[in-house]
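Morning. Coffee machine broken again, so started the prediction first thing and wrote up yesterday's gels while waiting. Chain of 427 residues, entered below exactly as on the submission form.
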Amino acid sequence: MRTGTWVTASAHIITAVVGSGVLSLAWAITQLGWVAGPVTLIIFSLITLFTSTLLADAYRHPDPVTGQRNYTYMDAVRAHLGGLKVRLCGLAQYANLVGVTVGYTITASMCMASTTIYMIIFGSIQLILCQVPNFHKLSWISILAAVMSITYSFIGLGLSVAKVAAAQLNEGAEATTTWPTVSEAHRLWKVFQAIGNIAFAYAYSTVLIEIQDTLKSSPAENKTMKRASFVGISTTTIFYLLCGCVGYAAFGEDAPGDLLSGFHQPLWLLNVANVSVTIHLIGAYQVFAQPIFSLVESSCRQRWPEVKFVTTDHQITIPFLGGTGFHVNCFRLVWRSAYVIVTTVLAMLLPFFNVFLALIGAASFWPLTVYFPIEMYIARAKLPKFSFSWMGLQALSLACLLVSLVAAAGSVEGLIQSLKVYHPFKN
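Came back before lunch.
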């Protein structure tokens, strides 16, 4: 039974959004400056809010109030657009999920001194958790992860405020206007990459349909969801502006890519923050990996229903526990373990926090946050081609595509530069 309200939906949006992306916002604001940085954040928030209102009307089809429910983002695309666009949506969505799991492995290791060792430890924990066959059994991890994300975000904000109040860095904001030691080309690439970091912080539209599915049907879900989106995105944007701008004020031009890495005391509080980041990312990894596991396993069962390696579960009994045991599926064991190992190795080969988050943001923002919500609205509203509304929406989509391409270019350039000085498994 659905009992959600705009209050619970707003809370879901905030907890789903506030994550590791907030740690890179001070660096992003530094690259863009005092004016362009906050303006860019606000523009991204307005675009996301607008497309979220369009997406709220796509929850039901064909009528946004009385039509049939769509339980996932991909279901909504299938109902409104169908055909090739469903496959393109699936490709974008699952590629984003893979990228995020790699990015979270990198982020978790950034909290520790030796990134390679802690990536291996993080991957080992995921090897165990990923064998849980049903995701609903991990719901407590998801709740804990949300609490942890809010914890380390507020610690980072509080430490930044304390640093500004103590006037430990007084010249940073003035120095950022000159950039004396950086070439214009290098500065421009960093600006593009910063846009990608901001895009990553707002690329969460794929969870909105699932959140809307928790709402009670009276008042209409789309109206409730639009209100929740406004509250959730507004609250998140204010928090982003605080973290980004206060972090910039605290560090100036020297703002680190990971906000927490710029502080060295008090040690106990930093340890709490770093442990919170790690716990959050352990849970978040599973949130993003489980849909990939489910897709591959269900597809393989449908394609090879007669292969016991794929379909058969084996009961394993634990001695001395009164016959208690668990089910093991050989394919699930091999496939999920292989996925965790591959993502961990990729993270070890490309341990670049800002660059990787920016690349994920650039690749996912336009298709998932902008393109598909707009296309679904056009299809549902039956807007004639070249009408005023149609051209306005297409212009917005094109502009966001260009921004995503620019951000992707900056991220790729940053990745290339980082690879020139990085030696895998040695740094």
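Residues 267-303 form the longest helix (37 residues). Going to sketch it on the whiteboard this afternoon.
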